[in-house]
Amino acid sequence: MRAAALLGPANPGLAGAELRFSVDRGGAGASPEAVRRLLRRLDAGGIGASLRLVSATKTESAPEPERPRLAAAWQTARATLPPDWSDLYCELELPSSDYLQRAALLLAPANPGKTPNRSAFRFRVARRFGYGVSPEMVRRCFERLDAEGIHGRFTILRALADTHNVATQGPVWYVGGKAV
């Protein structure tokens, strides 16, 4: 049954002609966002189906621990830089690939590059001129991520201070043999 294969990550059970699966915000079943993606697969595959809620339970759960806000992490990281910093090479690591598409959209002004084999983006920041997003735009992009509940770990991978761009857009870093 093709529908069961497409819904595989939700671990559906077959009961007659019905597929049954659980959705759980707390981690015991597929997350609501994961189920939305899986149901879109059915639509894209041209598989007609109806969705029926069998039961719903409201549980009291402990409040989620406060995650570090990305905008605050950016401000903290900036405070550690020397006053004459000019160029940064940064990374935002996401806890799940579920966040990749939306985070890429919200980070678009920073021209993020996907890090191979990881749920992470890298981007450049230029303080006054040159190649990279402005520090103010990084803060704004991170505020947008925070507003949508997308969290992660921000790291400054490389930093340069007091560079002077002459007939160029900025310094060139080589990572893994490639210019970034």
CATH class category name of the largest domain = Alpha Beta
Percentage of residues in strands? 15-25%
Helix content: 25-40%
Shape: elongated
* CATH fold-level assignment of the largest domain: Alpha-Beta Plaits
Radius of gyration: 22 Å
What is the element string, with H for helices and E for strands?
Answer: HEEHHEHEEHEEE
**Tally of discrete structural domains:** 2
Distance between the termini: 46 Å
Class based on secondary structure composition and strand pairing? alpha+beta
Count the strands? 8
Placed side by side, the strands forming the largest sheet appear as 4-5-3-6
Query: Strand count, sense and closure of the main sheet?
Result: 4 strands, antiparallel
Give the count of helical stretches. 5
In round numbers, the mean pLDDT is: 84
Show unreliable segments: none
What would you say this structure looks like, in words?
This protein is an alpha+beta fold and 180 residues long. It has 2 domains: 2-44, no CATH class; 70-161, Alpha-Beta Plaits. The chain has helices at residues 2-6, 32-44, 70-79, 100-106, 135-147; strands spanning 13-15, 18-20, 85-93, 113-114, 120-126, 153-161, 174-175, 178-179. It has a 4-stranded antiparallel β-sheet, covered by helices on one side. Strands 1-2 form a two-stranded antiparallel sheet. A two-stranded antiparallel ribbon has the order 7-8. Helix 3 (70-79) packs antiparallel against helix 5. The longest helix is centred in the N-terminal third of the chain and has 13 residues, at 32-44. It is elongated, with a radius of gyration of 22 Å. 19% of the residues are buried. The mean pLDDT is 84.
